[in-house]
From TrEMBL:
<feature type="transmembrane region" description="Helical">
    <location>
        <begin position="226"/>
        <end position="245"/>
    </location>
</feature>
<dbReference type="GO" id="GO:0005886">
    <property type="term" value="C:plasma membrane"/>
</dbReference>
<feature type="transmembrane region" description="Helical">
    <location>
        <begin position="188"/>
        <end position="206"/>
    </location>
</feature>
<dbReference type="InterPro" id="IPR003445">
    <property type="entry name" value="Cat_transpt"/>
</dbReference>
<keyword id="KW-0406">Ion transport</keyword>
<dbReference type="Pfam" id="PF02386">
    <property type="entry name" value="TrkH"/>
</dbReference>
<feature type="transmembrane region" description="Helical">
    <location>
        <begin position="121"/>
        <end position="143"/>
    </location>
</feature>
<keyword id="KW-1003">Cell membrane</keyword>
<keyword id="KW-0813">Transport</keyword>
<protein>
    <submittedName>
        <fullName>TrkH family potassium uptake protein</fullName>
    </submittedName>
</protein>
<feature type="transmembrane region" description="Helical">
    <location>
        <begin position="6"/>
        <end position="28"/>
    </location>
</feature>
<keyword id="KW-0472">Membrane</keyword>
<keyword id="KW-0812">Transmembrane</keyword>
<dbReference type="GO" id="GO:0030001">
    <property type="term" value="P:metal ion transport"/>
</dbReference>
<feature type="transmembrane region" description="Helical">
    <location>
        <begin position="71"/>
        <end position="95"/>
    </location>
</feature>
<keyword id="KW-1133">Transmembrane helix</keyword>
<dbReference type="GO" id="GO:0008324">
    <property type="term" value="F:monoatomic cation transmembrane transporter activity"/>
</dbReference>
Amino acid sequence: MKGLSNPIRLIPVLFICAIVIGTLLLSLPFATSDGVRAPLLTALFTSTSAVAVTGLIVVDTPTYWSFFGQLMILIMFQIGGFGIMTAATLFGLMAGRGFGLRQRMATQVERSRLETGDAAAVLKLVLKITIAVEAGVAAILAVRMMTFYGMPPGEAIWHGVFHSVSAFNNAGFSTHSDSVMGYQTDPVILVPIMLAVILSALGFPVMQDIRANRLRWRRWSLHSKVTVGGTGALLLVGFFAMLAMEWQNPETLGPLGFGAKLLNAAFHSVMPRTAGFNSLDVGAFHDQTLMVNYILMFIGGGSAGTAGGIKVTTFFVLFAIVLSEILGRRDAGLFQRRFGRAVERQALTVTVLAASLIFAATIYIASITTLPLEDVLFETISAFSTVGLSTGITADLPPSGQVVIAALMFVGRVGTITVATALALGGQERPYRYPEENLIVG
């Protein structure tokens, strides 16, 4: 019990337990549409992708899995999105009778400035936002599917609920074989999904800050300012890059009208934030578009939410460090606030470890397949950043390649937390310091 009261150990354990239970459930005969047990690797990969809210698949979700199987997948990405994070905090509080300094530091790395006394408030906020957003988006989608696409009420409600929960949890799973490509000219379907993705990708500390201080920018924390400002900047970059690079591509934006081009460019500037839905054929993107997606996926969304990646704040901390070095400033910071050295080290460590894992996985998969390198790199970044977008190679990977992708999804979902908190806790401070000696850099 003492070991599990520490969130560093508790969160990965809970994720592993959820993945194992999900694998067992998806291995049941009635979890598949044909009543035949799914292969263990297929069940494990799908369970990992769902719990890690990634969305990468090796089998077609609507045709391979039965209603029971799809329902289990929905429950898994609902739990994986934020339930385990909340449960870890609350369970740690109960087991440890209140966090000590080290445990508080551990949870603060992913939850910004939340303190022990905020646990109940966080849980209420999460539940209220989740119920409101998922119910609202599900209602819009279901009504639209019934009235405009002629779906029977039961089918429309199921599709609406599934896509709503998947969007809010940044999961990217769809009950349609072509994701949401069938709705690429319909803003009533795509816009609510986009808004749900953006909101949940901001992270719960930002939601709490906005709830407490409304739109009074000056009262927001530095974390909220960087997350919201950085998110807006990255969305604009993705939007204009999609328009510029895919405008005349006959397999993506080319055949669409002006309004539909703007809609789909906006949609695909949001989805690399770790959502995973696609209204266009990602495999048909130009190479330069894929490269922009590499960057957007690697950065991801906000901390302490349902998004993955190295996180927006991490990226802009590194950007501020580089800028301060170029300008010859002693301190790095943004919005008239400077960063502490610990934050700078955490950002650097998370980024380097993430890049190293992606690099190693890409080399391994490229060495055992004949798939194009750009597609393999896209897949590994998408897996680590829990995005779920794919150029279509997931099912073509050999078993060992799928295991590597599954491992990346797991590490991407919980690894940055454990690495960052391990750095924050860092063991005991040495009672001495070594002599300083500089080396040539650059």
